[in-house]
Amino acid sequence: MKNTYIELQRFIGAILILLHHSFVFGERPISAMGLFFVEFYFILTGYFTAKHFSYLSEKCILPKESLLYMLKKVFKIIPYVWVGNIIYIFYYCLFGMKGHISDIFMSLPTNFLVLMGSPLNKGLIDFNPPVWFLGQIIFFLPIVICLMNKFTNYYKYIFTWVIPFILYYFNIESIGTAIYWNIDIHIYARGLAALILGTGLYYLVNCIQNNFFDTIRKFQLLINGFSIFLFLSFVIAVFLSKSEGLKFAIPIIIGIFLLVMLSLLTFIPKSKFPRLTRILNYVGKLSLPIYCIHMPLEYFIQGLVPKYSYSVKVILVIVLTCLISIIILPMVTRMSDKLQIFFDRFLKN
Q1: pTM of the model
Q2: Distance between alpha carbon 155 and the CA centroid of its chain, in Å?
Q3: Rounded to whole angstroms, how far apart are CA atoms 335 and 321?
Q4: How far is 170 from 117, CA to CA, in rounded Å?
């Protein structure tokens, strides 16, 4: 069952990341700190991965299940990535070509296999820079799943709280400015740290719900109001941010962690707002295609109408990104449903 409030947050996060990458238009007067929502997505992915595997039977074959779980995510993500790549190829051929046409063909394998955030893509064209995030999920999820299930107690009480901050500290100089990471091993440190932190969040939220359920329900309205107020404050601060110079990033990461935790404890009855629930769940589904295609579209719009004002180009990219996402979402969903049936049959055999 989807958390409607989280789905809304995912959509808002995707739009703020889109605005963060609007420097493609030659300026960026807003959302300089939109990159913080990448951490938000990583933590959520870790949370829902831990939640999924906590419900599995002890008789399941872990390596097989973890591989299938990762493959399901790959086949859900890759179609959107490919759409973004195709948009970028059109842009490059029409407006952005700076080298030989062979450059783009040499870059096809790493881009279409979601390996842009790896050293394999060094010296090649990156069609879709934001997709490094998805590559990290594909690479690290099976590792995290196996650690989480094979060393449960050590993982739950030690690894989830120690390893992430060791990895963050590993690149403390970059964290101290704006959580910018070098392309090599530091980018892997960021991905793995936030995923493990997300699995730790599941254990924490589950513990709070099991031990303080009655207290939470008693103060649910207060928790909901405080959670919504904090999230709106965070969104406004990110939207209005103009400077990328931050001296302390670890407190911000902890703040995002606590914000996600509070959001997961927020409960909005679906029966009272059925139509609103359906709408918010739908826009939440749009967040993944928006994330995967927005930056190639920004390049394309910049090449197509370079003299238009920043505001007009931002409106254009938001409208086009949402429209294309609405069009491709049902096609990818149908394909994912068929693959889900195939994987479920394979898992039973």
Answers
A1: 0.89
A2: 23
A3: 21
A4: 18
Residue owning tokens 């190829």? 89
With beta carbons less than 8 A apart as the criterion, state whether 245 and 177 touch. Answer: yes
Q: Is 211 exposed, middle or buried (0-12, 13-18, 19+ CB in 10 A)?
A: exposed
Which residues, 6 or more positions from 2, have their beta carbon under 8 angstroms from its beta carbon?
281, 284
The domain spans of the chain are: 4-348
Residues 150, 105: Cα–Cα separation, whole Å? 42
- The span from the CA of 343 to the CA of 138, in Å, is 17
CA distances from 90 to 165, 196, 286 (A): 41, 37, 23
Residue with tokens 């055999």: 349
**Per-residue tokens: 136:** 């990290």
- How far, in Å, CA of 160 to CA of 47, rounded? 11
* Tens-digit pLDDT profile for residues 163-201: 888 887 776 555 444 344 444 556 677 788 889 999 999
Query: 185: which residues sit within 8 A by CB, 6+ positions away?
Result: none
d(CA 142, CA 187): 18
Q: Which of 318, 296, 328 is nearest to 129 (CA)?
A: 296
